[in-house]
Amino acid sequence: MTVTNVHGRGVQRGISLQFRGGRKVNVDLIPKVKIEMIVEDEDVETIIAIIKRVAVTGEAGGDGRIFVIPVEQAIKVREEPE
């Protein structure tokens, strides 16, 4: 599992921040957390259910997305070629 702090935007289209003196600044990219996991095929549905249960914030704009993509191969950089 890899957890990365990233900046992005989705449906919420960014946010507006207001500073002293009434100055507003539109921020197109907002802070987010990206979690990447490689799991066995038979564990995918269980992992999705766990993430959906524990990752809910209740904030407007949604709680992110889960993408399921195949991993054809994983090779360690230090491994000797076969």
List keywords for this structure.
82 residues; 4 strands; 1 helix; alpha+beta; two-stranded antiparallel ribbon; 27% strand; single chain; two-stranded antiparallel sheet; 13% helix
Short description:
With 82 residues, the chain is of the alpha+beta class.
Commentary on this structure:
There is one protein chain. The chain has 1 helix and 4 strands. The strands form 2 sheets. A two-stranded antiparallel sheet has the order 1-4. A two-stranded antiparallel ribbon has the order 2-3. About 15% of the residues lie in helices and about 25% in strands. It is α+β, with helices and mostly antiparallel strands and about 80 residues long.
Give the helix/strand class. Answer: alpha+beta
Beta-strand segment tally? 4
Q: Give the terminus-to-terminus CA distance.
A: 26 Å
Largest sheet: 2 strands, antiparallel
Shape: elongated
Round the mean pLDDT to the nearest integer and report it: 85
Please work out how many helical segments DSSP would assign.
Answer: 1
Taking strands numbered 1, 2, ... along the chain, how are they ordered across the largest sheet?
1-4
User: Any idea what the radius of gyration is?
Assistant: 18 Å
Helix content: 10-25%
Q: Could you give the order of the helices and strands?
A: EEEEH
Uncertain stretches? none
**Range of strand content:** 25-35%
Secondary structure topology:
Layout: E1 2-8, E2 15-18, E3 24-27, E4 30-36, H1 44-54
Antiparallel strand pairs: 1-4, 2-3
